[in-house]
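Table S2 (continued). Query chain:
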Amino acid sequence: MRKKKGAITIVLTLVLALSVFLSGCSGSKSESASGGSKDVTLRILVWNNNPEGTKLEGKIFRAFEKENPGIKVKQVFAPYDKFNDKFLTMSAGGDQPDLVWIQPSAFGQFVSKGVLMDLSDKKIDKGAYMPNVMKLGQVDGKQYALIRDASTFQLGYNKDLFDAAKVPYPKDNWTWDDFLDAAKKLTKVKNGKTVQFGMENFYTSELLVENGGGIVSKDGKKVIIDSPESIEAVQFGSDLINKYHVQPTSAQSQGLSNMFLAGQAAMKMMGPWDWADTAKNAKFKWDVVPLPAGKAGNVSASAYLPIGIGKGTEHPDEAFKLLTFLSSGKGQDMQAKTLSAVPVVKRNADQIEEMSNAPSNAKSLANTLKEGKTIMNAPYIPEYAEIVNKVQPVIDNINLKGKDADKELKKIADQVRSEYNLK
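Corresponding output:
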């Protein structure tokens, strides 16, 4: 009898030990995130790594963590110009982040390489978004990303420098000629050295859009970098540097991360994502206006942030929770007040003028978006990022050495047509 009782005790002990072992191994990742002993940490790859931006993004992530106990969020940074390669390298090396910010120019490439999760079957409240927002995250009819914010570039200007030079403030309907005239008057030279520039940096991509040009047509089938409109836009950008000297050369701007904030440039390309940093650090009065109009009128390129989920994530459910929080949940209610990021949901459509750190003329941005004056300038084709990488060095060389835009752009256009079988 004693032997039988002892045997039963041993069996029960073994069963108990086995059950404890199995219970420690059987919980799914979702279960552990909602109350298990180990938190899930989601990594999101971003390019915004300035201290103020990191801090403000962190506030939204901390709110998500509070709403979802057991899930932590960690920002991983990569430089903007190295961002796409970084994500692809991490994905190929088995170190893929759970979520990733996406540059529209690389969207088609990411999809073609199979590094993004297809979200088409996910439960998405499509009715919550403003018109056309969902399409910005689609490739060939499938949903590969959701949009966190959608806006466009404007031009920020230093009121104090305008006042000192007795130059009238720019108006919402100004043109390239108006801009150039102001930039010339706001450029100052002392002892043969430029101590103040009219413009910090006018991005070529924006000049192309404003003049009705581009690198490749919207449908991705035709090369247009050598169209008259594109050539004129690139030449104008080069002339700002090499002919009119109102924008610094790369050598002149070397070592200076923000000439506008330093009071060394009177104007700067700026989006609402820059408002918080400018409001905090500018020691002068400033405001914004739409970009000056080229041949296409007062239009500008759409600036929007698609966020996708890495196909290799080990935490798909938790990652989708975060993506939903950012694109349609509480994150949308917070971002206008923290990041000055324009919401994409209908319930917050009128918040632009009330956003945190909004300048006096924030209404001009609201009008631009409301009137549909933004243009999607990056076709979602797999080769687009590669094409841009071939064309951009040519444009950089035109700006750097003052080469003839017509000749150089026609040469690279023919090369792209041949290599990618485009018209």
